[in-house]
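R.M. (postdoc): so does anyone remember the format we settled on? I'll just put the structure tokens first.
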């Protein structure tokens, strides 16, 4: 297999690349990434010398960039993660999300379709989010059959890309698989997202900005468990099918941040309550979805997938990684992020 993994320099993509490069030395892995503010090749410095890994800088929206990569590397499979991924940014700039997430995905599908006419086995695995299903009441769970109801520009763009992926399967018999995952956490997570932002601010004794009342619920999954789910679906999932990925791990934002504060007080030898005193309630996010929660029964029963780690342990490991990798945080936040942070939070 010659696998094009798009968005491999980002958070989840770098974990997927690391897993595939190490576990499947006989596959050629091509990391195709535009290196936006969210992409960082240092995420992969532990594997970038490996013989089965290549990096290609390119834009999924460019027919030329994608075609050249397909031609040069004889691409037989795709795992597509490249996207604009932050809800708050999508509220500011929805067009950019439509360009990358919708047009970029459609371009990738079209180029792959034009190259894959040899009758051989191919797979296009599209990585999506549970946010396409909208916002839940207190008790339901998102199933693969839940109707799409995206409510942010980010989720609308991901939903649209999902529809194109399914349309290619139905219209052209194009070999797709799809996964819709809940919120991920772990190392190499860009500090604009809730967990790494809070870790960073706790460490630096800065305000911890909670949107609204902090009662919104997210279902958190260890990023390496998402990578193992993608591995299982990519290899053993049925063509044309969608698999939901999640670990039944719901937290209100405020409970999660309080838990993180206690954990970091301990790790940093601070008086109990020091970090929590930084919590600051700020204006709610526009259209803020109340609750996400995934039912991953299909993935568990059909493909035998299970999450490997409890949240408390995963969060503790994540905090340790950030404490040990402050240079990574400094580098990735040194550019345009400063301006973004000021605009969002001051
Ligand atoms: P991320 O923002 O950390 O990384 C995105 C990567 O895509 C970056 O390396 C960036 O440079 C690259 N990229 C962006 N535009 C590109 C373009 N036009 N051409 C080529 N590369 C481009 O995102 P992430 O959190 O790792 O998410 C990866 C995928 O997983 C996304 O499709 C996202 O919708 C999905 N997802 C994320 C989560 C989550 O909790 N983060 C949950 C479920 C699904
Ligand atoms: P986020 O990490 O942006 O993921 P998503 O919106 O895609 O689920 O946010 C997770 C939750 O945390 C969400 O309910 C919004 C909230 N949040 C805050 O309260 N403060 C913050 O500074 C951020 C970034 C998020």
């Amino acid at each position: 297999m010659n696998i094009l993994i798009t968005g491999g320099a980002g958070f989840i993509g770098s974990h997927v690349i690391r897993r595939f490069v190490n576990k499947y030395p006989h596959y050629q892995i091509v990391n195709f990434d535009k290196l936006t503010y969210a992409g960082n090749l240092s995420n992969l410095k532990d594997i970038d010398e490996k013989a089965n890994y290549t990096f290609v800088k390119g834009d999924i929206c460019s027919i030329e960039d994608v075609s050249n990569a397909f031609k040069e590397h004889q691409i037989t499979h795709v795992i597509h993660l490249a996207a604009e991924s932050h809800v708050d940014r999508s509220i500011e700039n929805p067009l950019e999300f439509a360009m990358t997430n919708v047009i970029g995905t459609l371009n990738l599908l079209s180029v792959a379709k034009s190259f894959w006419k040899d009758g051989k086995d191919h797979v296009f695995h599209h990585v999506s989010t549970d946010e396409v299903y909208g916002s839940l009441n207190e008790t339901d769970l998102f199933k693969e059959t839940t109707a799409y109801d995206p409510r942010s520009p980010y989720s609308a763009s991901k939903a649209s890309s999902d529809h194109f992926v399914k349309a290619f399967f139905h219209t052209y018999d194009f070999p797709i698989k799809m996964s819709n995952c809940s919120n991920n956490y772990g190392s190499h997570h860009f500090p604009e997202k809730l967990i790494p932002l809070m870790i960073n601010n706790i460490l630096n004794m800065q305000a911890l900005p909670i949107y609204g009342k902090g009662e919104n619920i997210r279902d958190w999954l260890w990023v390496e468990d998402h990578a193992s789910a993608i591995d299982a679906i990519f290899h053993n999932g049925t063509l044309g099918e969608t698999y939901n990925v999640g670990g039944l791990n719901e937290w209100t934002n405020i409970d999660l941040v309080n838990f993180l504060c206690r954990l970091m007080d301990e790790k940093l030898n601070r008086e109990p309550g020091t970090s929590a005193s930084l919590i600051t309630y700020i204006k709610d996010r526009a259209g803020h979805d109340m609750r996400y929660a995934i039912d991953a029964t299909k993935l568990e029963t059909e493909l035998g997938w299970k999450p490997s780690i409890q949240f408390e342990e995963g969060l503790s490991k994540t905090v340790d990684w950030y404490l040990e990798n402050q240079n990574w945080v400094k580098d990735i936040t040194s550019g345009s992020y400063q301006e973004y942070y000021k605009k969002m939070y001051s």
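R.M.: ...and that's the designed sequence above, right after the tokens. Also worth knowing: The chain is about 45% helix and 15% strand. The mean pLDDT is 97.
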